[in-house]
Description:
Blueprint: H1 7-20, H2 25-39, E1 45-46, H3 47-50, H4 55-62, E2 66-67, E3 75-78, E4 81-84, H5 85-103, H6 110-120, H7 130-140, E5 143-148, H8 154-168, E6 175-179, H9 182-196, H10 203-207, E7 214-215, H11 216-220, E8 241-244, H12 252-260, E9 267-272, H13 285-290, H14 297-307, E10 325-328, H15 339-348, H16 352-361, E11 367-370, H17 374-388, H18 390-397, H19 402-409, E12 412-416, H20 425-437, E13 449-452, E14 466-470, E15 477-482, E16 485-489, E17 497-499, E18 502-504, H21 505-508, E19 513-519, H22 530-537, E20 540-547, H23 550-558, H24 567-572
Parallel strand pairs: 2-3, 5-9, 5-10, 6-7, 6-8, 8-9, 11-20, 12-18, 12-19, 19-20
Antiparallel strand pairs: 1-4, 3-4, 13-14, 13-17, 14-15, 15-16
Helix pairs in contact: 1-2, 5-12, 6-8, 7-8, 7-14, 8-9, 15-16, 15-22, 17-20, 18-19, 22-23
Amino acid sequence: MTASPSPLASEFLRVLTRLAGPLPPVLTQVVTQLMQATAQGHVCLDLAAVDPDGQLSEQLLDSPICGRPGGFQPLVLDQGRLYLTRYWLYEYQLATRLLDMVQTRPHLDNRQAHDILASLFQNSQQQPDWQKTAAAAALINRFTVISGGPGTGKTSTVVKILGALQALHDGRLMIRLAAPTGKAAARVAEAIRGRKASLPLPAHIITSIPEQAETLHRLLGPRPESVQFRHHSANPVPCDVLVVDEASMIDLALMAKMVDALPPHARLILLGDKDQLASVEAGAVFGDICSLRTYDSMTCQQLAALADVTIEADVVPASRIGNSVMLLQHSYRFDGSSGIGELARLANQGDVLGTITLLQSNRFSDIKWHESSIAQFASRLETRIREGYAAYWQTIQTGQGADVVLAAFNRFRLLAATRDGEAGVNQLNRITEQVLRGSPANGWYAGRPIMINSNDYNLKLFNGDVGITLESPTGLRVWFEAEGGFRSFTPARLPPHDTAFCMTVHKSQGSEFDQIALVLPDAPLPVLTRNLIYTGITRAKQHAEIWGVGASLRSAIEHAPMRASGLTDRLMAGGK
């Protein structure tokens, strides 16, 4: 296998050459492959896949650029996997800390906890009640992972968990809420504000449940011109409980730094969907952890005592971490009459025939497939864009307020797999501007939606935040939702941003829309995966459409890439 070095890989190779002298061609090639792998989201390079005979391992270890774990070389070879040293260290530190967290369990008054959970979940109709079981797991564990698809009640469950924890501690716990992006943080905060008042708990307990959330970067405390944070093991984040939503978006480096910054006594609760797209950067930490879901007999007994649920213990649990993983399996949004739910399930299972058959059957009114090439559906897509954004554009033309405009904007969204190309975000944004305005835009205008691309802690604007440009007495201003209200800025003050009539599926994570139209490129691409199809479909609450040729859709559903990582093996082996 050959690979052309990227600019970053070329620079890294020059650094290695300065440290160790000229590298043999075979080592130059393997370093290039490693850099290529990390750029594609892998944590490491599985040498067995590129070197079945094991000769590369010997050559690497004979070179000053590579060593075993614990060394000080730029590369680490561990269990047949080649790492950049920093990624090996992140993986090792994360596994070690997580295993430490599950080694012992907090003291718990089982009778009191049982009664609190019985009160909080008294109206549940599900058997077994996985929400209640997940809440019980969060009471007995310092580390808990709750995974579930859209509408399975992750936020409802965590509100009750926080209520139970505060009830057990008389409201004295310091609880922090966080998410990878500003949009996701705002959503989880809004959801908790809307749900906590209905809890059957004393007023002072309800008041002690926080209503504000922050981005992970803000929680950890960014340092200018540094990849390190102000909070770490020697200066931990002040909290007793940390809840992190949309955790599937968190890459290995950020997850390791976050866990390292927790106080030794703190609880960590991760919420997410294991089947969504993994993080943009290296790693698939949330999915790796969820893959270890198994329960030992002691855990099953404790869950039975607290939640009145019967769970059969696994004969050989995969890892102590597995006791901390809960999967919510009942969707309250997508029931048996939902085409979106059925389509998401089939795509997620990799059932190509079932997916295609369902889309072609027209059995459900909430899903539709426009099966043709970009050139063939161009005019029909323009019509759909005009229809989809009609209510939004009407609010702009009639001068409605930011609350009305933003609500209308979230009724429909164009989604794409890539930024470039005929079916990419950039082109679809240009088409939308042409359809709505009659000409492509060269600058700012009333009605231009934008998405922030980098965090600005001074302005409190974060990557993923969406704003709408509106007229004001002093000129154009861009409005953003903020803590139950709205804030506005002049366009000149904004950090880097893009027009956002269309966004990538990656960028749409953490958001929901009434209707979505997912546009696929004509040619199958590596970025097209079943996780992308699943994530795109499940952004829709009421109606989901796919626009594209059958070959691209089939290729995507068949493609379920696994990111190379040693995390699951490390967690199973006790961190080693």
